[in-house]
Amino acid sequence: MVFRKLPGVSASGMGLRLSQKFVFLLFLSGLVTLCFGALFFLPDSVRLKRIFLSKTETQPVTVGSENDARVHLKRPKDQGMTSAKGETSTKLKSLSRKQSVSHEATEERLAGGRAQEEFTLPRSRAESASDKGTSLDHGANSDTVTYKKFRRCLLKPPLGRDNGKPSDPKTDERREKVKEMMKFAWDNYKHYAWGKNELRPLTRNGHIGNMFGGLRGASIIDSLDTLYIMGLKEEYNDAKEWVQTSLDLNSNGEASLFEVNIRYVGGLLSAYYLTGEELFKNKAVELGEKLLPAFNTPTGIPRGVINLGSGTSWSWGWASAGSSILAEFGTLHLEFVHLTQLSGSPIYTEKVMNIRKLLNKIEKPHGLYPNFLSPVSGNWVQHHVSIGGLGDSFYEYLIKSYLMSDKTDDDAKKMYYGALEAIEANLVQKSPGGLTYLAEWRGGILDHKMGHLACFSGGMIGIGADDGAPDKRQHYLDLAAEITHTCHESYTRTATKLGPEAFRFDGGAEATATRLSDRYYILRPEVIESYMYMWRLTHDPKYREWGWEAVEALEEHCRVESGFSGIRDVYTMTVSHDNMQQSFFLSETLKYLYLLFSDDDLLPLEDWVFNTEAHPLPVIRNSCLRHHWR
Ligand code: DMJ
Fold first, then answer.
1. Would 346 be classed as within a structural domain?
2. Tell me, what is an example of a GO biological process annotation in this record (predicted)?
3. N or C: which end of the chain has fewer CB within 10 A?
């Protein structure tokens, strides 16, 4: 290399000065890099960090971006089957949720994210404004779980390798059919009932109802995640835009605490966790705050109804002696724990832990949890026990709290298996025809009736089987399969091949409705929900076949010109429609069907727990969130 000679400086002297300068510059740039790198180790609350790094934190995250590229996709080769008892017993496909989290980029990971990238809307002014509009300071608490951290602590990409597309063409065709049903239900809602809570498909108008305290758009909030996982991009974007511009949380009406929580809070939370859109998180937390006054009772057990504007709360008029309902106050845990995660405020978790504590302490008749409890005295009001309506999702949230806590919530685990033992000892029955069912219990007297709502329990007992006592695991899986079989029987014994609201096992009846008032079907998901879980757990093809029977029946009897409708009598072929497309049809029934015909890597059960309205919420891996991430 030739240096041009400067006056008065020898070539060797110039070389020395240059190398000194070079070393100095090197040192300086090293120092700058170190300082900048150190920012990542500061807590989120430090101002300097927010100034330098806040932009990347608040961008909607798209799969395949640098945020996700580090999530390692470790596809478990099907984990060992636990030994089957005999030919008739169902085999358990073990679901280990304890895999380690690794963070390398893989091609599979990137492939899994393509669809999501295309979903991301440009951030509009309305959204940016709304991001700033909530009363809680989401960025100010160092415990706040950022979206990046959360994504890095998942074991697998949420949408799988190829959005869960099954390799088998027949299954894929069935999945496409379900997607078409969703689009049809959505398009009609959009056309005739946009912004209202539900579609009335016969009269082609909207229904508002009185469950949501003046909140609107229940079908929109309930559909966000379903549209998203199905890849219905335009529809998802319309739904998101409606949330941005029209979801008004400042309503002043009387709402069911339970319904607002499972549909609105749950729907917004899962939309946030799937997409990373801050808008959904902020709306969820803003709404969560409005629900808090319902807990202002002498025991902290919330009342069932709350005025979202004034915060006044009271019990349902039909609930005896001003009591609160087990399935209502017992179905808040999953959402409220996530509200604490996202807001950094412990209050949500404190509220639901207080409910848990009281229920754990109180004396239980035969180990059972009655459906009515006084929020004033903290005592049971009546001894009616049911795994169907009034009780159902309380049990569901116990096992799901345990799973969602990355299997660290031992109280929930103990309470769930304790309750299950009591249910087995007191409610599980075998009919003369050999069908296993769950009766209801009234102060020690059995009512041999099982509601459609109770059919979720096949799935619940199935997902809890693996964590039961080692000698009980296969038994629980068999019990789950038997209950799911009974619920399927209740469908096969009707003219329409759809199941009644309640069926009985007395007076010669076997899984059949004996009263006129129990013969209706309102597009409920519970039976299909159990097919989906049992499919994931066993891969027995009969569950997909049963799901397909339901699709055909829905198409034949519930599809009308402008949407889907419930029917008044499942036992007659000349159906009478009830003129209501329930929002849970879009959120649950069609989502579970879609998952049933998808590969297991679409919303893998190792990472996701579904709330009782089928909104997926991620497992919280505290050790990963706390320690591993910078
Ligand atoms: C849904 O809103 C939820 O599944 C709830 O837990 C029970 N009822 C409906 C569906 O049937």
1. yes
2. carbohydrate metabolic process
3. N
